[in-house]
Write a structure and sequence with these properties.
Elements: E1 3-4, E2 24-27, E3 32-36, E4 39-46, H1 50-61, H2 63-71, E5 77-88, E6 91-103, E7 106-111, E8 126-130, E9 134-141, E10 144-147, H3 149-155, H4 160-169
Helix pairs in contact: 1-3
């Protein structure tokens, strides 16, 4: 059975994984990074973070591009995923969902990363997400990231050296 999630209409934060797909945790403070042994680092951002709000808005206004590509993917397109806010009591975490299907305005897929703060879902759990509730979307086309607006917003904050190290861990290229 799929878990249906509600969304709180607040701009949230984003998580990055060494594989390019992790989740998001929320912080009341300015941006910080949580390092985890053997797992991807997590970028925490403030709820009122303007670049993150803009990235989420861009993802939502362009989600039809994602839906069209997912509906008829070219042979060179892969790794279709969306981010959704998972709510567990007072905790909110943005998690990547590997999209398996789309119908009637809803994505169905599986949680693609290990949650950091929330405990009501686990990696691999199946969920249904209304398209209006996504915080980001992405897919890879010929080895290049398409979408991934929150990933790009966080990446823009890195120094040149940090960005080079981050990029070296990704299975795709991010064009600036």
């Amino acid at each position: 059975m799929a878990l249906r999630l509600r969304f709180i209409g607040v701009a949230l934060s984003a998580l990055l994984s060494a594989t390019g797909l992790a989740g998001i945790a929320m912080s009341a403070d300015s941006a910080s990074v949580v390092e985890r042994d053997g797992k991807p680092d997590i970028a925490l951002t403030a709820a009122d973070d303007a670049p993150m709000r803009a990235a989420i808005a861009q993802a939502r206004t362009s989600v039809e591009e994602f839906i069209a590509a997912f509906a008829k993917p070219a042979a060179r397109q892969r790794s279709f995923a969306v981010i959704v806010a998972v709510i567990d009591g007072k905790l909110i975490e943005q998690l990547w969902v590997d999209v398996e299907s789309y119908a009637d305005g809803q994505f169905t897929g599986r949680i693609a990363n290990d949650p950091y703060q929330v405990s009501n879902v686990r990696r691999g759990d199946r969920i249904v997400v209304d398209k209006e509730r996504i915080s980001d979307w992405m897919f890879v086309d010929r080895g290049h990231l398409v979408g991934g607006f929150t990933v790009r917003a966080l990446r823009a904050r890195l120094t040149d050296d940090e960005r080079a190290r981050f990029d070296s861990t990704l299975p795709f290229v991010i064009n600036d």
